[in-house]
Amino acid sequence: SGYNVGLGDCTHPKLSTARSDDLLTCADLPQTSPFYQYYISELVPQVENLEPDVIGLSVNFLSQAFCSFALIGVLKKYFPGVKLVFGGGLITSWKRNSNWHNPFAGLVDACVDGPGETWFLDQINTEQKDGFATPDYDDLASKNYLSPGFVLPYNTTCGCYWRKCNFCPEKAEENPFQQIAHLKVLNDVAELT
After folding, report:
1. Handedness of CA 170, 136, 40, 105 (dihedral sign)
2. Residues 76 and 98: beta-carbon distance below 8 Å
3. Per residue in 107-127, pLDDT tens?
4. Which of 111, 116, 137, 170 has the fewest CB atoms within 10 Å, i.e. the most exposed one?
């Protein structure tokens, strides 16, 4: 299909992740994605079993853009009535750019910047509690990751303390630095492990 897939990137010689038209092409032609068969054989049956009203996709890096837009194309085809919500670090960077205009309005129902939990809680009219909630990974298959052992995803902070690096999206996104209390971190990690 022309894609070059590695452990850290997915590129195409004729398409660019920096062009919204190319990303929309990935959504229009998901069958050209190197991940298409996986989406059809593995993900579509799981989504059918769950019967969700909303599906949220978190896209954090440009390297995830091609496969994410192909996945959106598959989801739109097989589940046209499901609301699609786009978020993550990459979407946050795009939305917080002063030149942002949503080129994906007909494709996804919402683009969320910042922590997606806040947006989802607002949708169900539930107030977010102060502080950091302990993550719930019960539904994740911990052995299906490409790593030599289990990796526990856990953030002890949000934002950046330094906010000085020119390349860092935290500075551009103006996320405040927030730190979880050390006793909560210890208790969370003990509970999660």
Report:
1. negative
2. no
3. 999 999 887 877 888 887 887
4. 137
